[in-house]
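[step 3/7] fold_predict: job queued, chain A
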Amino acid sequence: MPTLTRQKIVNLKHLLDGHTAGNSVRIEIRRNTCSAGLDIRTGERNKQPMGTLAEKWRNFLTQEKNENIVLIAVIRDRALGGSLELALSADILIAESNAKLAFPEVNLGLMPGLGGTQILTRRVGPYKAAELLMLGKEFTAEEARDMGLVNYVFDEADLEAEVEKLVKLLDSKPPESIKRIKKAIRIAQNVSLEEGFLKEGELFNELLLTDEAQKRIRNFLEKRDEKRRLRAKDKARTKHKRTEIA
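[step 4/7] structure written:
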């Protein structure tokens, strides 16, 4: 079964580095690409198995420029080990209903090395993370959704259309809002609640001054005022008719 190699990680990094259109980028984890996880033979060829790769990947994920991108991971068939870690790096995670997931590294005397322990614990809490990482058992897409690891689960027949709808919806949102929302979420995981409130306020104020926000606010207020005028007109017309009947 194909595995997630150093080169595939590098290729993905190049894809994201070169992204310019829209808010979202989709990566797909499937059996015939890299669902079996990291190529452990990389460790046989290098004295530091995945250390350098893991460090580069973590650094890449935390780069500020990646706050401009909504990364959508779609899991088909299976996502094991490093491939599941890769999927967990996404902002939105979607799985096919028959997909199987697992962190089997413990069965090889290893542990996740691409940030899996840290991201998983933040997603599902320390107790569930301990269960998944220490037992190394497979779990279903439905179970992943129920524990908050996956956002959506779709049948194979519906998946493509549902993902496309989600991508279009995301791409319709203002990029500056997406960027600051991602930044605020990242900040929330690393600071106190009080500091998080302050940072959120700063980001909100930055957005409030943008041309895009001002335009959308004006449009919203104009539409709201028009609806109010129409309701008032309908109310007056109804009242007039009642008066005529009386």
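[step 5/7] annotate
The longest strand covers residues 24-29.
Residues 105 and 112 are 6 Å apart (CA to CA).
exit 0
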